Structure formats: structure tokens, C-alpha cells
Amino acid sequence: MSPIDHVLEHFPGQDATARRLYLRDEQFRSICEEFHMSIESLRRFEERSDAPTRPEIDDYRTLLRELGTEIRQYLAAADDG
Q1: Residue 60 and residue 19: Cα distance in Å, rounded?
Q2: Predicted local confidence at residue 79, as pLDDT
């Protein structure tokens, strides 16, 4: 799955706006790439046999919430503008 695919999956109904921003806005694209890498890393940690003891899982979940907020704000601002 690509960075923009992860964004589209988590922010349904925002396809056109997200795709436009991803193509035209370097900062938005960077946030999407970080969101994508964090999702992939979280999944790898969650699949580990020692997952319940891995502090990285909470760290990635927190990071994903923060990145999700940033993406949501970007999308809202683009819709308003």
C-alpha cells in the first residue's frame, strides 16, 4: 500500500482533496509518507510475539494520532480555501 492509499483509507470521502494535496504540496506529502511508515512499523511491532511488552506500539499509536490530526487539518483547510 502506498502513502496516499493509507491516507485515503483513513480519511474516506476526502479522495480528491487528498490526492490534489499529495501531488502539489510537499509538506502534505511528507506527512503522508510519515503516516504510511508509522502504520507499517506499527503493524510489524503488533505482529511480534513480544508485542504486549513493546513500548514502541504505544509510541507509534500516539504518533499516528498526531499525524492524523495534521492530515485532518490540512484536508479541512483545503476544503475551506
Answers
A1: 24
A2: 78
Alpha-carbon separation of residue 57 from 26, 27, 81 (angstroms): 28, 25, 36
Q: Which helix (H) or strand (E) is 65 found in, with range? A: helix 55-80
Please say if the pLDDT value at position 67 is more than 70.
yes
Q: How far apart are CA 22 and CA 41, in angstroms?
A: 21
What is the model's pLDDT at position 28? 98
Report the alpha-carbon distance of residue 44 to residue 29 in Å, rounded.
Answer: 23
Q: Where are the domains of the chain?
A: 3-80
Length reported for the chain: 81
Report in angstroms the alpha-carbon separations of 16 from 4, 19, 36, 62.
11, 5, 18, 27
